[in-house]
Every structure is written in structure tokens, then in C-alpha cells.
Amino acid sequence: MAAKSLKASPLPTSDSPSAQPVVMVARPAGAPLTAPSSVDTDQTRALARLNDAVAELKAQALNPYLHQAILDIQADQPQSATNWATKALEIDERSALAWQLLGIAREQTGDFLTSLKCFESAILLDPDNSEIANDLGRLAFRMGMKEMASRFFSYFLARNPGSPDGANNLACALRDEMRFNDAIEVIRPAIYAHPDKAMLWNTLGSILVEQGDLAEGVTFFDESLRLDESHAKARYNRGNARAQLGDALGGLDDVEKAIPGVVLESEVAMMKLARSSLLLSCGRLGEGWDAYEERLNVNFADVTHFLVDRPSWTPDSELKGKSLLVIGEQGLGDEVMFAGVLPDLIKSLGPKGKLWLAVEPRLVPLMQRSFPKAVVGSHVTYRVNHHVVRGMPFIDDAGGFEQIDIWTPLASPLRRFRRSVEDFPERTSYLVPDPERVEHWRAILAELGDAPKVGVLWKSLKNNSGRMRYFSPFEQWRPVLDTPGLRFVNLQYGDCDDELAMARDMGIDIWNPPGIDLKADLDDVAALTSAMDLVVGPANATTNIAAACGAPVWMISTPGAWPKLGSGHYPWYPQVRVFNPPGYNNWDPVMQEVAVALAETYPPKA
């Protein structure tokens, strides 16, 4: 994704995989000086003694460099550690420890490809060293290769049974594979054996949070902090969980107290970014948007590298008469939501200014129609050495970046134009659906009869545990779908055959609109939702598009959803009605509330 998407909270972190190296004793490292087989025994022994002497000299020469590399890694000074490890390798290129330390240092800089090669060199030189397998597991974990990480951590734990670090690492990888029961089975015996290890309680809490049991997760974060009140990651995780449970102020307090306790710059950046979403959740918009710039910090693990060599916009930038490039970021729904600031930018540019807009390819037709004087094209995102890179090839096709005076990611101008909830305009739309397609869908929907047409959707395609807990299970939609006198229309993109079949088993027919790909044809989705009497669902790409087009939308939210910005509604879309559950994962009351509201809004005809 882009820079880390502002959600209720980032993924819970554990103490694993650890970034600290295991301090090892340097071994004699030179290549053996073997003698030809015809040499007599005395010569062979002499050569062996010479080989040992050379190896000992090399080891003595290496030790100061290796020791300093370890100290620099522990102090989060990876470039200095790189230099010391490289000096050691200049003395002895067959030092497995030097390669291992160089791999750790390069990993800390985010140079994952070089790091991987260094660890591979280390394990080839020292294949029995399970610590190197642990390093490879940690690197695979950071690169998103969770299954591979699990294998390396399992290898390490099998050779180091009873290791709390090994169990912790493996449990984290299993957690991120959504193998929650397996993760608990790994961490439980480790806790029994080491009940005083705060990191194990923290990891157990993170597993439960990922399962959706936030309250129980907080209990284990509390235990971790009881054992070690300086445990920054447990405090950070507890803060995120508290925020999702609806206690944004308590969550903010925890995260702010956690930040000074971390050393690694990547972890500091992650926690500062989480702090920005909590500030927004508390309604402190000016501070929140300023803090949200942390997503652009190169030390942030999920930072997006924008391929633009032009001056960056700041809140003090003069825009009148300028040529401004705005680049979409975050998830698709975020891109649509943040686009509400574009009319403000166009006004600031004035009649002599020019807006260039790079958006997700599926949004190009809708954005071009909505902002006809802008030059709209698609951004292209890919990975280079496991780093996210975003380019804008359409600008090269249109004459090059020399035409651009200044550029900005799409969310950054919110720092200037939305510093309070009162700064949001009372406009019901800023995107324009295709009017001909709107009429087309109205005619199609009219063939279904006179009943009000209510579009429904219920999930996101990002089917991981961190996302799933923001959406009510489909079976809990029954009170809504049982509302008499309505014609429900499927707006759910992706594979939803199982849910539609479940609805039929309930005796409910959810009509599937023909001739439209609800995931790919977003311009037509905008027209279809605009033809509806009502759209009901959680915050995802479709509900954001419908709301931005001015369609009547009922949004089913969660207690800690940051886009409410400390209010009970969505300031982004004044016409949207928000339904908030009374507590985290407590869906039954809110679904009953939606059902009652539907019956009141569309009473059965006599």
C-alpha cells in the first residue's frame, strides 16, 4: 500500500522477531591450508599449526570490528555497523559472524535484498549455526514471507528447545498466518516455563487481539506491563486495543508513553503513525494531520517511495497559478475520501493554475469527469527490493515532470484545509457519476417493481484478521434483510456466492445486477449506487464512492473508527447516516437498529 493506511490501529506488534543480534564468540575463520596427500606427517602437522596460527591472528584482528558492529546494531546505528562489519570481511571474507552482522545491519536500513544475501553467505559458511536461521526467519517475517519465516523459526526452536525467544518468534509468524490455535500452542508452554517473561504475555495478547478478542488481549498486555512497566510494545499494543474498544484518549495516552521506550527508528516511526490516527480519533485534527506526515518517513517499514523529483508541497506553499501534482495514496476507499480536498486545491490554484492528478487506475474516468480541467492519469505501484514504489508514467507521456511546479500526496493538504471538523464543507458530493449510466441503472432497477431499492454490502476483500473484525458476519444481517417491502440489491464486490446462497436459504433474494464487475467497473459502480434509494454497509471502497457521489448512504461503523474524527458521524459526507455499535464486536444491537430505521424510513404500503 502506500504509506501505512490510517485504520483504527496498525497490526499489533510483539517483541519478535527480535532485531537484537545474539552475541557470539568469533571462531577461527580462515580457509584450511590443506597439504597434498603425498606430504609426510610432520609437514602436515606443521601446516596445520600454521593454519591455526593464521586463523587465530585473523580472529584477534576481527574481534574489535565485530564487537563495534554489535554495539552499533544494538544502538540502531546500522550504517556504522555496516562499515565495521565490512572492515571485518576485508580481513577475513570467510567470517560467518561478520556476514551475519552485516546482514542484520543491512536489514535495519531496509536493504532486505543485500541482507538476505549476507545471511545466505553466513549460513553457507556456518550451516550448523541455528542463530543464522533465526535471522533469516526474522528477515522473511519483515519481507512478508510469513510461511517461510515460520519454517526458519521452527528450525531454530527445534535446535533450541525451551528458548523463549524462539517460541515468541514462531508464535508471531503463526499469528500472522492466521494460524491462531497453533500460535497459542507454541506460546502457552513457553509462558508456563517462563512466566516472568513480559514479551511472551505481550505476544499472547497480540494473538488474541488478532482473533478479535480485544478485551482479553488487554488483560495480557496488562500482565506484561505488570512484569515490566517499561515494556514499550505491550503499552503500544494496549493503546491500540483500547482505542478500538472506543477509548481513544486512553489509547493515545498509552501510545505516547510507549514511544520514548523504543530505540529502532522503524518502530518509532510506526508508533508515531499510530499516534496520528489516535489524535484524529480524539478530534485533534490539526495535530493529527501534522503527525500523519510520519507515513512519509523513510524509516517507516511500509513507506511509499514516490518517484517525483520536484519540490514538495507544505502548508505554507503558495498555490495560485502553480502547476500542482497530487498523488493518490492509501487504500482505494481512502483515496476517494481524501479526494474531498481537491476542490479546495483547485480553488487555491486559481484560473491560471493547473492540477495534475494521479489516482488508482479504476478511478481515472470518475475523477476526470469530476474534475474536468485537471489532467488525470493512473499511478503505478510496484515493489523494488520489497519497498513500495509509486510512479506516474502518464506524466512522462504528457511531456515530463518539468511541467510540475510542486507535488503532494493526496492526504497532506488536509493539514491546511481540514484542521477542525468545522472545516469540512456542507456539500453533499464532490464526485460526478456518468449521468447516462445513472439513468440506465434507474431504468433497470425500475423493472424490479415499486419497492425501494436498497443496495447492501458487508465486507472488504482484504480478508485478514486485522480487517475482518471491522465487519459484521453476514449471518448477523438477517434483521436488516428481513425488513419487509424492500428490494435488496447486491453491491458486494468479490466472491460473495456463499453469502448470497445463505440469504436464499433465509428466504431472502438479493438481486445481482447484470453486466457489471463490482470490483473493476468503479465508474459504473458510482452510477449504480447513485441510482439507488439507499446504500447500506460498512466503510469500504463502494460506500465511499457512493457517499462522495452524494448517494444516500447508511454507514455501519465501529467504536474506534478514526474517520469519524472524534464525532459521531462522518464529516467527509454530510448526508451519510452513521450507525455505531454499543461496543466492539457487538453487532446484534446495531443491526437491529438499522432494521428499525429501515422500517421507519420505508414503512410498508397499505
Q: What would your notes on this structure say?
A:
It is built from 26 helices and twelve strands. By secondary structure, it is of the alpha/beta class. Among the domains are: 304-419; 435-601, 3-Layer(aba) Sandwich (Rossmann fold), CATH 3.40.50.2000. The strands form three sheets. A five-stranded parallel β-sheet has the order 9-8-10-11-12, sandwiched between helices. Strands 4-3-2-7 form a four-stranded parallel β-sheet. The chain has a three-stranded mixed β-sheet with strand order 1-6-5, with no helix packed on it. Residues 1-11 and 18-47 have low confidence and may be disordered.
Q: Would you spell out the secondary-structure blueprint of this structure?
A:
Elements: H1 41-74, H2 78-91, H3 96-109, H4 112-125, H5 130-142, H6 146-159, H7 164-176, H8 180-193, H9 198-211, H10 214-227, H11 232-244, H12 248-258, H13 265-281, H14 285-291, E1 304-306, E2 323-327, H15 332-338, H16 342-349, E3 354-359, H17 364-370, E4 375-378, E5 380-384, E6 387-391, H18 393-397, E7 406-409, H19 414-417, H20 435-446, E8 453-456, H21 465-468, H22 478-481, E9 487-490, H23 497-505, H24 522-530, E10 534-538, H25 541-548, E11 553-556, E12 577-579, H26 587-601
Parallel strand pairs: 1-6, 2-3, 2-7, 3-4, 8-9, 8-10, 10-11, 11-12
Antiparallel strand pairs: 5-6
